[in-house]
Model the fold of this input.
Amino acid sequence: MQAIIVEDSRLARLELKEQLKHISGIELIAEAENGQQGIELIEQHQPDIIFLDINMPGMDGFEMLEQLTYVPMIIFTTAYDEFALKSFEVNALDYLLKPITLPRLHSAIEKAAQQCNKPLVEDKLHNDSQFFVKEGEQCWLVKLQQVQLFESIGNYTRLYFEQHKPMIYKSLSQVEKRLPEPMFFRANRSELINMQYVNNVEIALNSNLLIHLQNGKIIELSRRQAAEFKKRMSL
Done:
């Protein structure tokens, strides 16, 4: 699916562009900083989706839509919730409030993919992959190889890298599907460890294996996974 961003804030455009890099199946082909530029680019490229701000100088998002002859799927991106009802009057696909989280953006794009009959399939990550993480007012661009541990917290997953441990709105099973298997190992139902950060292994009083990571975390392997771990680490 091809997309265009129409947004007057340069910082907001940069953040949205960075987030879109981490969602496969969507290609950003142009961006506009005002409604007039948006009209010209949309008519020229006829994208599948536009990410449209509402409050813009000169011409707001609704006024821009009135002037289009070609109207793609619309995902509003705005800091104001009072336009939500009006957005659905123009058949908007979704309405995203800033600051936009990656899970919320992903959900909106999945809706678009379903309408286009183009299933959204996330690419498998590799050792050198980077991904965007945002929690509250903090955000990071994390290299996968920096992550020592993924830990399940209900429907969320906490990741440990350097001195940070933010949470992302994805289940551990969803995260595991995208990880390179030689690099990461499922220690038990709630923890995935990066094999590069295993400091040492010891046998607990209950005969289970304990994995000591470089960050000081101690992970107890399930009995089933202990056998798999021994197999992987043996000559």
User: Anything to note?
Assistant: The chain has a mean pLDDT of 89. The domain at 2-115 is CATH 3.40.50.2300 (Rossmann fold). The longest strand covers residues 147-153.
